[in-house]
Amino acid sequence: MRRWLSVLLLAMVFSFTSALPSDAAAICRRGKWDVAKDFRTAPSQANPSADRYGNKRVWSYRAGPENSPKDYRLLGDFSSAKFHVKGLQAWWGEYESVDEADRLPSVGLNARKRAVDVLGVHWPAGHVLVHPLDEAVVIAWRSPITGNITARGRAWLASPDCGNGVRWSVRDGAAVLRSGEINGSDRASWMVKRLHVKKGDKVYLVVDPIDGDFGCDSTVVSLTIKSRGRRVS
Asked: Using CA atoms, how far apart are residues 143 and 146, in angstroms rounded to an integer?
């Protein structure tokens, strides 16, 4: 009798988990997203890209007018050797800053094991670096769930001894949740303790030049999002 009960219980569990969509099943096991850990490096780069759990089109790297999310456009070109350094991997635009290996705007990851110092930029290993042009550079997270989340992050200039700093903001669609400016050796940190999102909603981290001056605006950023409590999907 106990054998048959065990078989019946296993069948019920299998039937329930099989009925879940594959991405929902992944979210039930994991509810944390990190822009650095999820960044897809060559040869698997993509924009938009899946997260590390396999949920599709979660992250995207964009540029556009700071206050107009509907006009944020995808960065279309990719390099695995930004600044001519292999392992500095970036999505970027068409404007050549120093040369063809330094195009803007850009969002990239130092996939090397050590920090890189090049052209006055200090880029820590495992960190994401962004640089705007005359418009904002944007990291977008597209929610694969319906439920409550927290979001936290940091930002500091990679070239603190030059330039006039940057503006940053965290947005729920067009709504500004947190914002500020950093200059010199300033370090910004923020946390959104509770935000309700529906599947497909977007949270943006936006970095914009001050007064249109984008010189020395390389900015190290982090963005971590966690689900809170029960998730609907």
From this structure: 7
pLDDT at residue 23 greater than cutoff 50: no
- Residue pair 174/215 in contact (Cβ under 8 Å)? The answer is no
Question: CA-based Rg of the chain, rounded to a whole angstrom?
Answer: 20
List C-alpha distances in Å: 170 to 177, 202, 215, 223.
Answer: 6, 11, 22, 10
Give tens-digit pLDDT for 37-96: 999 999 999 999 999 999 999 999 999 999 999 999 999 999 999 999 999 999 999 999
What are 228's two structure tokens?
């809170």
184 and 157 Cβ atoms separated by less than 8 Å: yes
Q: How far apart are CA 87 and CA 112, in angstroms?
A: 5
Q: What is the H or E stretch that residue 207 is in?
A: strand 202-209
- Tell me how far apart the alpha carbons of residues 147 and 144 are, in angstroms, rounded to a whole number: 10
Beta bridge partners of 90: 79, 108
Q: Give the Cα separation of 185 and 104 in Å (integer).
A: 23
Q: Do 207 and 194 form a contact (C-beta atoms < 8 A)? A: no
Closest by CA position to 74, among listed 59, 85, 96, 89: 59
For residues 92 and 62, give the distance between their C-alpha atoms in angstroms, rounded to a whole number.
9
Fold of 22-228: Jelly Rolls (2.60.120)
